[in-house]
Amino acid sequence: MKFKIVDMTCGHCVSKVTKAVVAINSGISVMVDLSEHMLTVTGDITADEVIDALSDAGYSAMEIKTTCCAADNRCHGG
Ligand SMILES: [Cu+2]
C-alpha cells in the first residue's frame, strides 16, 4: 500500500512515521520516499491501521489507490 504524507518533511519525520507503523506490527516492511512524501507499507496490515497510527503520531496520511493507471499513479515511473 502507498500513502502520501504531505507533512513528512525531514529525516526526523521519517523516523517517527516508520516507528509508528512498525509499532503496529513488527513484521511489516516500510519504505519512505522523502522527496515525494510517499510511504510504502508491505505486510499484514490494513490501510486504516496505518492511517490511524500515523494520525496518532501527528501526521495525516492519504492512501494512494494503486489501480493502473489513474491520474496520480506512478506505476510507470513518472
Ligand atoms: Cu520532520
From TrEMBL:
<keyword id="KW-0479">Metal-binding</keyword>
<feature type="domain" description="HMA">
    <location>
        <begin position="1"/>
        <end position="62"/>
    </location>
</feature>
<protein>
    <submittedName>
        <fullName>Heavy-metal-associated domain-containing protein</fullName>
    </submittedName>
</protein>
<dbReference type="Pfam" id="PF00403">
    <property type="entry name" value="HMA"/>
</dbReference>
<dbReference type="InterPro" id="IPR006121">
    <property type="entry name" value="HMA_dom"/>
</dbReference>
<dbReference type="InterPro" id="IPR036163">
    <property type="entry name" value="HMA_dom_sf"/>
</dbReference>
<dbReference type="InterPro" id="IPR017969">
    <property type="entry name" value="Heavy-metal-associated_CS"/>
</dbReference>
